[in-house]
Amino acid sequence: MPRLRLLETTVVTAIFAVSSLAMLLAYRSTPAAVPAATLGLAALALAVSHPRLTLYAALLAIPLEVTPLAVGPLSASESLLVLTSLGWVTRSLISGSFPFRASSAGVALGIFGWITIISVFLGSDPGTSAKVGVMTLVLVVLFHFVTKDGDSALVVGLLCCLVVSAAIVSAFAILNNDQSSITYIGTDAFYREAGVFAHSNTFATFVAMALPASIVLAFVGPRSTRIVAAIAAGLILIGLILTLSRGGILAAGASLTVMLIWAPMRRSVAVMLACLALLAGTGVSLSGHVTYIDNVTKRIGTLASAAEGNDPRVAIWRGAIEMIEDRPLTGVGPGAFEQAGPAYGLLNPLATEFPFGVPSHAHNLLLNIAAERGIPAMLSFVLFLLAIGKDCVRAILQAAGVQQTLAIAVSAGLTAFVVQGFVDYTFSTNVIGATVIMLAGCSVLLADPTSDQEAR
Predict the structure, then answer these.
(1) Beta bridge partners of 65
(2) Running DSSP on this structure, what letter comes out for residue 294?
(3) Which of 14, 47, 214, 381, CA to CA, is 20 to 30 A from 424?
(4) CA distance 397 to 403
């Protein structure tokens, strides 16, 4: 039987089986269970037959993070990410293809994933760590999906969806600015916008990674697309400023600096860098009903006090180091930093910076990974980042034209994530992790000139 026919037969059989189960479910539960099961089945069938579409949908669903559209403990976007990974693995196995592409970054990420699973069982709170472990494996699968079955069209599609989501989230933050997050530094209070995310720093990381792609799309493609992308870039920049995130603003500045590599963009990117500095320096209110107690300059200025050891992050880093010393191989468990914090003194002294008492993470990418998953996991993630960095450089040097433009956008987005990682840990938010993994997969694709021919 041809592979395509086998795939179709399997999908039809699955539909019939699950439909029968849905009918039985209707007699034992509420009527709402049937349409929910039907919708889930349709999504799974789409993930098997067209995993790219569900991956795009996962990115486009990010603005729904604050809505009740969730499947159990997963948000709409997380659910679609899980379905995409399951669908692609199923599709690959049915077609006789192993769901894996050999690459330095892929091997390092795979090791990171398996170490994470081990640390789930050996950590201090396996229940809390279980979701983190599952989602880490999902991210590993998605990386291999992008690198094995991807091509330039997938890269463009992912960047477009990323820009659309970031623009929508930013517009929501601008129009619905309710000063949703407040941070105290001494006697100074800073109102910060978190958008649809739980924290303003997460929002800042997301839009900082999307900003380079919006600029690229404003330079390539049809005129109508360029206009929309230019508007999106403006919204994203304003949304970033509203976060008052020091790390996010520095990350965006680093990503824009990378964008200066491409000559046609230099003037426009230089203007955006100037705008970023101007907005940061004046702290101008960006909507009539918003009042900033202080401006972005003062927030950036607190970096000096942090360098002198006066920032609460310093105490958090000390606590993270103590966690690593106690459990160097397995860590306290993925996602268990907050639960372990009080045992290391991370409570009352930080109440002014963290109103809820215990910090949820180590405010540093590598320290948090080492504290929660162990030093081996941290080293494997470092190898992953180094491999991706090498691929980014190779893609920029080897590619030309639009391909090089895409490579610069991907590299700049990943640069934003790495810079933000020095002062924060947003990788724990699954949609941020998925965005990083997808951009990393795109860098592997763009570094391989044969990827378009090999993609199925």
Answers:
(1) none
(2) S
(3) 214
(4) 11
pLDDT averaged over every residue in the chain:
78
Do residues 348 and 357 touch, judged by C-beta distance below 8 A? yes
Q: Which two tokens stand for residue 40?
A: 């889930």
Q: Can you say whether the dihedral through the CA atoms of 310, 316, 320, 325 is positive or negative?
A: positive
pLDDT at position 269:
72
Burial label, 126 (beta-carbon count in 10 A; 0-12, 13-18, 19+): middle
User: How large a percentage of the chain has pLDDT more than 90?
Assistant: 34
Residues 6 or more apart whose CB falls under 8 angstroms from that of 140 comprise 109, 110, 112, 113
CA neighbours within 13 Å on the CB side: how many for 31? 0
Question: CA torsion 370→373→376→377, rounded to 10°?
Answer: -90
Q: Are 199 and 247 in contact (CB under 8 A)?
A: no
Structure tokens, 33: 């269970």
Task: Name every residue whose Cβ is closer than 8 Å to that of residue 209 and which is 6 or more positions away in sequence.
Answer: 162, 255, 413, 414, 416, 417, 435, 436, 439
* pLDDT tens-digit readout, 285-322: 444 434 444 445 455 555 444 545 556 778 888 888 99
Report the b/e string of 366-388 with b at 16+ CB within 10 A. Answer: bbbbbbbbbbbbbbbbebbbebb
The pLDDT, as a whole number, for residue 451 is 61
Three-state DSSP at 442 gives helix
* pLDDT one-digit tens code per residue, 334-393: 988 888 888 887 765 444 444 456 778 888 999 999 999 999 999 999 999 999 999 999
- The CA angle 255-260-266, to the nearest 5 degrees, is 130
Rounded to 10°, the helix 246-259/296-307 angle is 100
Q: Hunting for tokens 């991370």 — which residue is that?
A: 346
SS3 state of residue 180: coil
Q: How many CA atoms lie within 13 A of 246 on its CB side?
A: 19
**Which of 10-14, 178-182, 202-206 tops mean pLDDT?**
202-206
Where do the structural domains in the chain lie, given as residue ranges?
3-99, 141-306+359-454
pTM value is: 0.83
Predicted local distance difference test score (pLDDT) of residue 185: 46
Cβ neighbour number for residue 274 with a 10 Å cutoff: 10
Residues 123, 121: Cα–Cα separation, whole Å? 6
Measuring CA to CA, how many Å separate 236 from each of 62, 195, 220, 249, 328? 15, 11, 18, 12, 39
